[in-house]
Amino acid sequence: MRSLLMRYATPSIIGLFLVSLxxxxxxxxxxxxxxxHGIHEWLSMVLILGFALHVWRNWxxxxxxxxxxxxxxxxxxxVLLSAVFFLPGSGEGGRPPVFGLAMQVMAHSATxxxxxxxxxxxxxxxxxxAAGYTVGGPDQPLADIASASGRSTMxxxxxxxxxxx
Length: 165
Fold this sequence. Notes:
The protein is mostly helical. 68% of the residues lie in helices and 0% in strands. The longest helix has 27 residues, at 2-28.
């Protein structure tokens, strides 16, 4: 078993990295099937196992990297580049604008949103109630309705457009 794991440690990293590369580029440019998001997230988790096996298999050479400046410099640069995304005004991490729009809609009440959906506030509240949401009143923000019901705003969005999930 150990030899099998050792034999596939580096090839698994290469394969999973290529999948991560392709799906990451597609996500960055907002192209490709929606499955790319799940593929990218889940197989990146599997990549951790491949990385651990690779480090285990190549422990002695890795120790020499840890003693030199190149790894320290690379780690510092990586942390600094990552820190940029935590600065104020860095946005939603490149998410499509539709997510920002959805969050703006969720900040408003059924009374405010109903006309945009071609319905009345009462009909919209009835739709949400039928979908299992707890609605405190017509002026309660939609995000608060989702939260009070223990559901996500994306679930509530599905109910708003008639596709109660």
